[in-house]
Write a structure and sequence with these properties.
Elements (H helix, E strand, L loop, with lengths): L5 E10 L2 E11 L4 E5 L6 H8 L7 E6 L2 E2 L5 H6 L2 E4 L11 H8 L8 H14 L1 H5 L10 H13 L5 E5 L7 H16 L4 E5 L2 H7 L2 E6 L2 E7 H6 L1 H7 L4
Helix pairs in contact: 3-6
This protein binds adenosine-5'-triphosphate and magnesium ion (MG).
Amino acid sequence: MSEPLLVLDDVHVHYGVIEAVRGIDLTVGRGEIVTLIGGNGAGKTTTLRAISRIHGPSAGSIRFEGSELTRLRSDQVVDLGIIQVPEGRHIFPSMTVAENLEMGAFSRRRVARRRLAEDLEEVYGLFPVLAERRKQLGGTLSGGEQQMLAMGRALMAKPRLLMLDEPSMGLAPQIVQRVFEVITRINQAGTPILLIEQNAQMALNAAHRGYVIESGAIVLEDEARALLDDDQVRKAYLGEE
Ligand SMILES: Nc1ncnc2c1ncn2[C@@H]1O[C@H](COP(=O)(O)OP(=O)(O)OP(=O)(O)O)[C@@H](O)[C@H]1O
Ligand SMILES: [Mg+2]
């Protein structure tokens, strides 16, 4: 059997002398949604930033389709098709929705304009609210709309792996529902997803498999359905007694 798409093997990440991620193993297979859940400061964003080579890792191996990412720069990781929607979204506030989306295709410099126009229409199909607001400035969108824009911008890069850092953060339950519907649709259209979340309920409902991270270490991993039924997960992450 071939190796999974993404393989983290004993990954450690330090900030100075502080070890924020302490030897984690994690895989994402082709076609999967895999979620990494955990509380504040558990090391979720740190893990994601190590994969995208923004910071770290200090030890361990991260392989993506046979490439060792730890030898690459962050722009080379993007060129491989590993696209991140960061925590807090970071859209361009003084650019329009359409311009923000076009920026997402930056890594595809050699693609014909006609192709990009088609991809743009595909994103508008997935997010009708962005189509209605294509000339509106990014900074004037609501939080939910900004999340849609950040995801749409990532899709413009034609990701081979999409990494989402807490897409539900700060959004009303109804909007969270909508965001997760879109996550499922993106995956069903063929894009593997690594989904980082504090909202364990939503994340485990959407994902195929999940990992629970506490203090920089993986404490549980299983099929998402099994984690939803797990007593430890229910108590710690699903707010049950
Ligand atoms: N740039 C940094 N310098 C020093 N320490 C950092 C830095 N970034 C994160 N940390 C520390 O590393 C640990 C893990 O942080 P991380 O941001 O990965 O957590 P998280 O799981 O994403 O939490 P949250 O759900 O609150 O976003 C925390 O203790 C945090 O304070
Ligand atoms: Mg985080």
